[in-house]
Amino acid sequence: MIEKVPNSVQGFPKQLIDKFGRRVDYIRLSITDRCDFRCVYCMAENMTFLPRDEVLSLEECARLVRIFVSLGVTKVRITGGEPLVRKNALWLFDEIGKLEDLKELVLTTNGSQLEKYAQDLKKAGVKRINISLDSLDSERFKSITRTGELEKVLNGIQAAKLAGLENIKLNTVLMRGMNDDEAHSLVEFAVQQAIDISFIEEMPLGDVDHARASTFVSNADTLKSLQSKYTLTSSTHQTGGPARYWQVADTQTKIGFISPHSHNFCESCNRVRITCKGELFLCLGQEDKIDLMPLLRQYPSDDAAVISAILDSMSVKPKGHDFDLRRTEPAIIRFMSHTGG
Ligand code: SAM
User: Which residues pair with 167 in a beta bridge?
Assistant: First the structure.
């Protein structure tokens, strides 16, 4: 039960600053926990998904984004689960795309639905799109995603290019003994396609079948290996996310490294995550959260309580995650598919 609701939110600060002075201007909103893939590092083989009434409606998602934008958020990433398997997801993209003060509407997807939706996403104003791709070998792709078809994703990448989506980036999680021998071929593919690629170190989120310490591949090692083949120049390119970029000489491709283990990026953290249940997680690697769904539902036409809760949440945003690969149990029990990648 919410006891205190400000009568008016007139004069509330139009920016989100946490207790460490970090400005939060980027939200990642998961619009579904469902996915058509079951990637081995992201989900269990048999997942139980949330009942529909425990998931934010698309109207509630749109309302939340509008509120965050009124609080100074300028970048919104739609994610999941797989966001494009949510029925009528395009309606939400259209609504968010209309928000004047929003600078960037971006998407993370596994690419399986892009043939169908790439053009509409472009029309809705999506600026950048991250497509997960962990292997170029169809059998291996199937074993990592458990259900995915490589060809569909490759067609999705072509559809995104044809639709004119400007910034396409591949996201790859390398795992020792599974796909770590593909760093070079994936970069080669990105170069041929004139798109970017980021390597993400696997994070201990959710309980998976493999021991993460044994499959861990350090981005420092991947960089070193790629430098033996490519001339890479450290780039100042910034997307507002945690990746550090390197330009591949004489190509249009940049290689990003998201290194939660080998290069902790928490001091410049500018984002919070909202799950499809309306939980506002203040850090991917900590449990601190605020439940926004009860407020959204209790006050369907008055934003004051939601605004007040979001402003208050800044005082509990943690300093950072403390992922430790030596621990055998996951740092965080919830899967990435719950929090939204
Ligand atoms: N379904 C979409 C996709 O496949 O991109 C969006 C959701 S997915 C959870 C977002 C990103 O999180 C993907 O790039 C995925 O590779 C990454 N991811 C999932 N679990 C991870 C983990 N344990 N460690 C690192 N990255 C992870």
Answer: 128
Does residue 171's CB lie within 6 angstroms of at least one atom of ligand 1? Answer: yes
| Ligand 1 centroid distance, CA of 161 (Å) | 21
Query: What does the alpha-carbon distance between residue 275 and residue 273 come to, in Å, rounded to a whole number?
Result: 6
Q: Which of 108, 174, 209 most suits a substitution to test ligand 1, by most atoms within 8 Å of the C-beta?
A: 108
Largest Cα span, the chain: 62
Answer whether 336 contacts ligand 1 (Cβ < 6 A). Answer: yes
Contact present, 267 and 21 (Cβ < 8 Å) = no
Q: Is the CB of 132 under 6 A from ligand 1?
A: yes
Radius of gyration of the chain (CA): 20
All residues at 6 or more sequence positions from 154 whose CB lies less than 8 Å from its CB, including other chains: none
- Tell me the backbone φ, ψ of residue 161, rounded to 5 degrees: -65, -45
Scan for tokens 């949440």, then name that residue: 313
Q: Tens digits of per-residue pLDDT, 79-112? A: 999 999 999 999 999 999 999 999 999 999 999 9
Name the band, by pLDDT with cuts 50, 70 and 90, for residue 150: very high
